[in-house]
Amino acid sequence: MALEIKPPKVSLRWEIAADASKKWHPVQAAKSDDRSISIYDGIGEQWDGSGTTVKRISAALRGMGAGDVTVNVNSPGGDMFEGLSIYNTLKAHDGKVTVNVLGIAASAASLIAMAADELRIAESGFLMIHNAWSGVMGNRHDFQDAADIFQKFDNSMAGLYAKRTDKTRTDMAKLMDAETYLTGAEAIEQGFADSFLPTDEIEVVKD
Q: Among 68, 73, 71, which residue's Cα sits nearest to residue 42?
């Protein structure tokens, strides 16, 4: 179920396409001694009850208690506000948060990845960032109101990316406008990620 926001005369919805959601399956269970969380589906509760929510992430963190935690991500994204809530929950966690991008962290999932104290990405993985999008119905005033609201959403997301990369909001806005897919190498080069996954690191042997 996608989140609805209803300011005066404007209805906004964030959701992933139905054909995309069918390809993603949640894996949230963890062993009692495991300090990892898996995000392998859409962000936000979906119509079939699947989806990664802040409630599920919070419950997993409470169960593990204070200490280092690893978050494995392969998600097409989804609800922006749910993504922001998970981001803030991870930032507040008492312990180091390591995020591993195994395949893709797109849209709202890329916001979650920004919560990492250490962000590692597969060499063959991707990070995708873009502007908030949705459908709007109404007259020209409604559309103008929606555009103003969307600008606030985009500024907020650009701020998170800028903080992570130590670049400007303007730099991030350009990438978001272009709906940018960053390869693993590009994500590291531009400061989104810290390194490749350990399995992708190449050991240089000197004579």
A: 73
Torsion of CA 160, 70, 97, 158, to 10 degrees: 0
Sign of the torsion angle spanned by Cα atoms 61, 64, 68, 70 = negative
Return the half-sphere exposure (C-beta side, CA atoms, 13 A cut-off) of residue 86: 34
Give first-to-last CA distance, the chain, whole Å: 58
- The one-digit pLDDT tens for each residue of the chain (207 residues) are 344 444 444 444 444 444 544 444 444 444 556 899 999 999 999 888 889 999 999 999 999 999 999 999 999 999 999 999 999 999 999 999 999 999 999 999 999 999 999 999 999 999 999 999 888 899 999 999 999 999 999 999 999 999 999 999 999 999 999 999 999 999 999 999 999 999 887 554 444
**Six-digit token pair at 132?**
């908030």
Tell me if 45 sits within 8 A of 51, measured CB to CB.
yes
Q: If DSSP codes are grouped into helix, strand and coil, which group holds residue 28?
A: coil
pTM comes to 0.81
Contact status, residue 146 vs residue 26, Cβ threshold 8 Å: no
Could you give the CA distance from residue 182 to residue 73 in angstroms, rounded to a whole number?
15
DSSP state of 45: -
Q: How many residues does the chain have?
A: 207
**73 closest CA partner among 38, 124, 34, 106:** 38
